[in-house]
Structure formats: C-alpha cells, structure tokens
Amino acid sequence: MSKKVVTNQTKTMVLLMLVFTAIILLFSGLVYFSIVNFSHQRFYELLKIRTATIVQIEKSKDHLDLPENYILNSLNDEELPMERDYVFAVPKDSNFRKISQEVHIPDYFFKSIVKKGEANYNDKEFYYIGQTFRYDDKDYIAIASAKNHYVIYYLGFLKRTLITCIVLSLFFSMIFSFYLSKTLFRPILKITGKVKEISSENLHLRLEPQPDNKELNELVDTFNGMLNRIETSFETQNHLIGNVSHELRTPLTSIMGEADVALSIGRTADEYKETLEIILDEAEKLDKKIKALLMIAQTGFDGKIQKMDKVRIDQLLWDVIETLRKIDSRNNIYLDISMLPDNPKKLKVQGNEQLLHLAVANIINNGCKYSNFQQVKVSLGATDTDVYIIVKDFGIGIPEVEMNKIYDPFFRASNTKNYEGYGIGLPLARNIVRMHQGELIVSSHENQGTTVQMRFPNFYSTKPEGV
Questions:
Q1: Which of 62, 114, 419, 433 could disulfide-link to 438, CB 3.0 to 4.6 Å?
Q2: How far apart are CA 248 and CA 286, in angstroms?
Q3: Which domains does the chain have, with CATH numbers?
Q4: Tens of pLDDT, residues 269-323
Q5: Do 374 and 394 meet the contact criterion of CB atoms below 8 Å apart?
Q6: How many CA atoms lie within 13 A of 291 on its CB side?
Q7: Are 448 and 339 in contact (CB under 8 A)?
Q8: What pLDDT is attached to residue 208?
Q9: What are the backbone angles phi and psi of residue 141, rounded to the nearest 5°?
Q10: Which H or E element spans position 378?
Q11: To the nearest 5 percent, what fractions of the chain are helix, strand and coil?
C-alpha cells in the first residue's frame, strides 16, 4: 500500500489557511462580544434612568403607603420596549418569596438591591435594574424592566452577518493561500525541473538566477558552483585516460625499444652505456609526467582540504616573477601596477600560497615560452570584491579550432611541436583558480598572442560580515 506524501506546498497552503482562519475567528469574536457588551451596558443605562424617574415620581406623591407584599405595577408611558415597572415596600423580615413568585424575578435579586442600594439582572428576554429609596421612614424598591430588542433581534442579524463574512473570508483565504503557496514554490519547482534536465551528457547547463530572490539565488549559486566542480572532474576524467595512456606509452615504448635493440645482439660497453642513458632519460620524463598527474589529482576537486591563509597577491606576483627570472634569465616580464587600488587590503585573497604561486607561475612561464621570450605584460588590479591578474603575451597563440581542448590534461596545440612541455600547466592552473572560487579566462589568436585573465574574490568578500 503506497503512502501518500504531502508536499510542502500543500503544508504551506494548509498552514496559511489555519492562520487566516484563526485571525478571522479571533477578530469576529472580538467584534461580536464587544457589541454585545456595549449593548448590555447601554441598555442598563437606559433602565437606570427609568428607575431614577420612577423613584422621583413616587417621591413626588403626597402619600405613599404601600402595604407589605403589595406591588405597584406601572405599565404606563412605556419608554422602552415592553417596559414593566415595579414599586413595593421592603418586607420587614426581608422575605421576598411572595413578591418573587408574583413578578417571576428571583428573590436574590431583591436582596442584592437591598444590600447594595442598586443591582441589575437579566433573563433570556428581560433586563432589570432596581434601586432602593426611602419615603416616610419606610424603605421601598423601584424596579424598571424591558426587553432589549437590540440584543434579541439586531445581534441575531449581526451574528448571521459575521458567519456569512467568516465563510466568505475562509473561501477567499483558501484561494489566496493556494495562490501564495504556488507563487512561493514556483521558483523552486522551476529549479527542480532544470536540475532534472542536467545529466552527465550536458553538465555545461547552469541554473538561472531568480530576480529579486536573494535566498534562492544563494541556492542557485551554490548549485552552480557544485556543477562547476563536477564538470571539471568529469572533463578531467573523460580526457585523462586517453591523454595519460598516450603520454605514458611514449617513454615506455622508447624504453622497451632501446632495451629490445640492446638485447638483440651483443653490444660494446659504450653502446650499453648509451642505451642505459637513453632509458634513464625516458624514465625521468615518465617520472615527471606521473608527478604532474599527481599534482592535477591533488587540485582536481577530489575532496581534499587544502590549507588556506590570507595571501597578498601583489607580493605573490613579485615572488613569482623573481623566481621565473632566476629559472631563465631570458624571461622578459613587465609588471603593470597602474591599476593597483588605493587600499592594499583589496589585494588580499583567501588561498593556499604554494598552489597560487604554482598556478600564476605556470601561466606567466607559458607566456614567456610560447612568445619566444618576448616581453610578457602582467597587469594587477582590484575592485571592491575581486583581484585580477592579466597575463598578455604576443607569441604563437592558439588555433581557434583547438580552443575547446586547452584545458584537457596533456593536450598540446598543433603549433607547439617546437616547444617543450607536457600540456599540464593550463589545466592545473584552472583547477587551482577554481579551487579558490575564482575564474580563469583564456582568449587567444594564432600568431598574435594569448591573454589569460585570472580573477579571485578578495579576502573580505569571501568572509561573513563582522569577520
């Protein structure tokens, strides 16, 4: 038996409806009971005025001597609906039972009037208010009563109106809740649909940012960042096996060939020595390529956590240039600092200094090598959020049709046969830049030169506020 799953959209709609219902019922109850309370108070005030009038009328009489348990009813001059007025003397024994039976009012109401001087009471239809007064050394009670038509009839109408309003409000709140929940979840459903389209065949697809939705855009950025890492790993793995097989097979073939030739016939000691030197040279090449592979694996987003520190890019750049000049004095590097920011803090990034040194050195060294040691211009600049390094050379460039393969490990452009190299530097540098949440962009024209732009978020834009 399949279990029915309640979606978050449904839960949100139900929750919104419950909240709206609670608010509507709360305010409806407040309105109803406030009007009922006001009606009671207002009607008792009218009855109090009538009671005071009765007392004044009785006191104005020349003679008032009512026998005990005699009730003076007054049904004249009805100022209020179905008004009934009573005047009677307080029994000497304070026993109101006979009067209570006659006027159908509980005797505790009379006792309350005697005790407090004034009291009120209401049954299902009539409202009563009574006062005591004294005339010729005798205590009397005057009571005015009437029907509160407003409570009986008008509040009934108010009750029906409120119920109708509540039903309509619930109906419209249901529609609003449905619309609101659908609006809130539409971007999420859109992102979910887009994510379902992404597979290993089209890892280049990215989620589009949602306008005016900061929280979802953070999710989109996070997911796109994850796709970048996955795509890099896929690309590396897809091309690595073929390239590695080819690159490792070449020195191995040479080693095996030299060994086979040396063993086929007898050789002199010098010939064996020459053969061994060739084998050693090829073995060293093989060792260098394996080390380069290990380096790519370490920077290829394999989940290893690298030590990150605060690094000043200008100092790192000076160190890289000095190192490259020591390695080969022909390296002609010009550092352009005209775009340096006023605040040196903008040049700090969160990164691993050794890896950053390796990436920048590879890019500048490639520029020197493939431009036949012509001058390479290195520009350093920064914005409020990012640090930029731009390396521009005027060398052989890269053929346009091969630009889509430049990040494949061991790929070498068709016009680089006369230059030493393994095709490791650029993919290694891109992996390192991406590891630092940066971006590496290459633009090149054959026989005109290559420009490599590296962008790194500065230290303060990668840290939460207050850090």
A1: 433
A2: 6
A3: 1-153 (no CATH), 214-301 (1.10.287.130), 309-457 (3.30.565.10)
A4: 888 888 888 888 888 877 877 776 676 666 654 445 567 889 999 999 999 999 8
A5: yes
A6: 6
A7: no
A8: 83
A9: -125, 130
A10: strand 376-382
A11: 55, 15, 30
